[in-house]
Amino acid sequence: MLLVLALPPRNLWPLGLVALVPLALAIRAVTPSRAFFLGWLCGFVVNVGGFRWLLPVLSHFGHVSMPTRVLILLVASFYQGAVFALWAGLARLLEHRRGVPMIVAAPLAVAVAEALLPFVFPWHLAIVVWRAWPLLQVAEIGGPPGVSALIVLISFVVASWSAALWSRSPAARATVRGALVAAAVLALGLVRAGQVARIRNAAPHIKVGVVQPNGGLLTAEERKHNGEHHLQVLTSATTELGKRGAELVVWPESSFPFLFDRDLGREYPPGHPWQLRRDYGGALLFGALTHSFGGSTVNNSAVLVAGDGTLSGIYDKTELLAFGEYVPLADRYPKWAEDVRARLPDSPDIDPGNGPRTLESGSLRIGPLICYEDILPQYVNVLMRGRPNLLVTLANHAWFGETEAPYQALALATLRSVETRRDLVRATLTGVSSIGDALGRVRSETGLHENPSPPATLLGDVALMDTFALGPYSSPLFPVLCGIALAVLAIRGRRAADEPGR
Q1: Residues 460, 465, 468, 472: what is their CA dihedral angle, to the nearest 10 degrees?
Q2: Cα dist. 404→9, 59, 397, 410 in Å?
Q3: DSSP state for residue 171 in the 8-state scheme
Q4: Which helix (H) or strand (E) holds 502?
Q5: 446 vs 429: CA distance, rounded Å
Q6: Which of 38, 209, 303, 474: disulfide with 249, CB 3.0–4.6 Å?
């Protein structure tokens, strides 16, 4: 329950540093199977408490009955609780069978467990400290599992030291060393953060504006009858941001209310009812459903319009949302897919893109991300091969409603800034939109609005950074190295146990 309180939007992050202390104490001196069960119980409760937003989402999005919704939540939580079970059971097993202290094994095991088991809803323990940016700096080396390992290390140090104080005995050497390692990681992270801050200050800066229209979910009928009104809301807010100095304005995912012809070379001319930039002369990045005129395929795209009105490039979303953008196994079970589509009339079939790409205009090299692509570290790692100097997310979280999910999405996405050492701009349809820097600090953010309300805007300075970041290369290797370290410790522990007198 302490972990649930540490999760967004409550953000009581100091609890996240001690939330695992009860579990660490509970699995001491128990069998590995018992530790496995207690770890699973902890993970199950955290997932039920943290993902209860799934209940209203399933009702709103899929019109699923309450018993079915509860069953889906419980099954998903049962499965994702296995991540906790794996690292807790493995750490206790290594201590019990090989003499490896849990304070050493548990941080390594959590990194392996988070990377090994595929998530239904991708999340990591790192989410509980996302507001504490000094703790996030290790993500440049280890990604989210690196931060999770640091959290577990701190919790086990506190648990071990507390047990020693309670029994009036000196702290074990492993406890002291664990505390020194945690302190060293934090100190080195702050040193690196200072270096990145200096690089960021010296980099070119531009003013970026974000328009959050707060119009709610746009159905096909709403787009048909009131599309021009929704476009007017976007263009008016864009004009205002331009007057305040915005050089790039970002609209959210699928915010352009009509099908956009991807074969256009320029934006719509002045006077056209679909004109994008009325009295604004800067660059515009907007989300739209795009198609080639006369074609049968539709893409969920990010379109970049340069200051002179030319279309600089289009990125098509690659990681599609099951049921929202495609029906799994539709080729094998067409009748079932047809029935599912009939229940979701406002969710058209989307064709996936060909992978990440960088959109360029002048000095801008934008790494665009659509929807939940910004919470997928492996996808952003590939995107970074194109050397973008700014990450921009276009998202439509309106179907989450006023739940915890949009706040959790922001928290998870913020780690991409640290891993890549790039500023991150996020434009969402109803919130939470944000502007953050390469240290993982969110400089400004909007609120969350479920019902239609006046649009919200953000304006902030972002750095166009070209600095090298280790994260895209080292973070995929971090869990592998942790697994190798566990294997070495197990072998050494076995040999030590075989020595005379041990």
Answers
A1: 50
A2: 6, 16, 11, 10
A3: P
A4: none
A5: 11
A6: 209
CA 317, 322, 325, 326 torsion: positive or negative? positive
Angle among Cα 169, 173, 177 to the nearest 5 degrees reads: 130
Q: Identify whether the C-beta of residue 347 lies closer than 8 Å to the C-beta of residue 373.
A: no
Percentage of residues in the chain with pLDDT exceeding 70? 96
- Per-residue model confidence (pLDDT) at position 495: 55
Q: What 3-state DSSP class applies to 465?
A: coil
Residue-wise pLDDT tens digits, 336-381: 777 776 666 666 789 999 999 999 999 999 999 999 999 999 999 9
Q: Is the pLDDT at 497 greater than 60, yes or no?
A: no
Q: How much is the pLDDT for 452?
A: 76
Answer yes or no: are the C-beta atoms of 231 and 455 closer than 8 Å: no
For residue 195, give Cα distances in angstroms to 144, 198, 231, 355.
21, 5, 42, 32
Structure letter (DSSP) for residue 326: B
| CA separation for the pair 428, 254 (Å, rounded) | 10
Distance from C-alpha of 140 to C-alpha of 211, rounded to nearest angstrom: 30
**Spatial distance between the Cα atoms of 91 and 311, rounded to a whole number of angstroms:** 54
What region, left, alpha or beta, does residue 310 occupy, with left being phi > 0 and alpha being psi -120 to 50 degrees?
beta
Q: Which domains does the chain have, with CATH numbers?
A: 2-200+475-498 (no CATH), 204-318+353-466 (3.60.110.10)
Kindly tell me if the per-residue pLDDT of 248 is higher than 60.
yes
* Residue 151 near residue 16 (C-beta atoms within 8 A): yes
- For range 82-94, the mean pLDDT: 97
Tell me if 163 sits within 8 A of 28, measured CB to CB: yes
Give the C-alpha separation, 266 to 152, whole Å. 53
Tokens of 287: 């989300």
pTM over 0.90: yes
* Closest-CA residue to 477 (of 150, 115, 152): 115
Q: How far from 348 is each of 208, 332, 334, 337, CA to CA, in Å?
A: 31, 19, 15, 12
Within 10 Å of residue 101's Cβ, how many Cβ atoms? 20
How does pLDDT run across 292-345, given as a tens digit for each residue?
A: 887 778 999 999 999 999 999 999 999 988 777 777 777 787 777 777 766 666
DSSP for 35-50 reads HHHHHHHHHHHHHHHH
- Beta-bridge partner residues of 266: 310
Q: Give the Cα separation of 81 and 77 in Å (integer).
A: 6
Mean pLDDT, residues 125-147 taken together: 97
Alpha-carbon distance values, 379 to 355, 371, 375 (Å): 9, 12, 9
**Residue holding tokens 């599912």?**
340
Rounded-to-10 torsion of CA 396, 402, 406, 411? 160
- Tell me what pLDDT residue 496 has: 52
